[in-house]
Amino acid sequence: MSYHTKLTTLVLMFDSTELFCVIDDFFLKFEATYWKFLKQSNHCLRIRTGQLSISEITFIAIWYKCSHFSNFKAFFSWLKQDKCNLFKSLPCYQRMIHLIKRHELALHVALMKGQETQYLWIDSTMLPVCKNQRIQRHKSSVQIASRGRSSMGWFYGCKLHIAMNQFGEIACSALSNGHVADIKMVEQLVDGLNGKLYGDRGYISQELKSRLQVQGIDLINYHRKNMQAIQLCTSDEYHLR
Which H helix or E strand runs over 208? Predict the structure, then answer.
């Protein structure tokens, strides 16, 4: 069984002991290369032994994602109170946040190594060119800007649509007028790609989902409150969080 198959199975079943062993075995081979890369890229000039190893930091981050806790602070408080015997020493909450952010690269590599299926996340953001009160006087972007509405309210400008893969890389991007619906840009963004595509409720469309399946794209999103509930597998729920 490959490393990623083991990791996925243990995350879904969640056996904390076996999960840590798999992560630790991986970092026994990868850690030296990881520190060498950080030194060469000037992200880390000194290698000092910390309270937690990279394996433990990665394990805590994955454990939180698999837990029922909705915020990391509550999870880490529970960890320090009930599970502190599993670690030699746990730092304070602020230090733990710093360590996880510092070693995000290691976490991504541990999660994605050996993964064949491509995972994509799609979303858009508004790019207002001026305040709403100044729309009538705005001249410089009048040919490409238009009135649009997002979850943050009305704006005047453009929209940036982006699809990112599991490695944190921008797989594709596109610019549109502010009034263009997010759902109309999906096929243009994922043209030539395949795998699973995760989006918010703004991308719900059975017709679009059927067309994308022909291209080898599986569009996955949550249902709206007034829609029939859709049963998602544990893996898809994890990626939609």
Answer: helix 206-214
Q: Can you give the pTM of this predicted structure?
A: 0.53
Phi, psi of 177 (to 5 degrees): -65, 160
Give the closest residue to 95 by CA, choosing from 110, 78, 73, 69.
73
Phi-psi region at 21: left, alpha or beta (left = phi > 0; alpha = psi -120 to 50): alpha
Count the helix, strand and coil residues of the chain and give each as a percent rounded to the nearest 5. Answer: 50, 20, 35
Residue pair 174/180 in contact (Cβ under 8 Å)? The answer is no
**Per-residue confidence band for 7, with pLDDT thresholds at 50, 70 and 90:** very low
Say if strands 153-165 and 119-128 run parallel, antiparallel, or are unpaired. antiparallel
Q: Which has the higher per-residue pLDDT, 137 or 239?
A: 137
Specify burial of residue 87 (Cβ count, 10 A radius: 0-12, 13-18, 19+).
middle
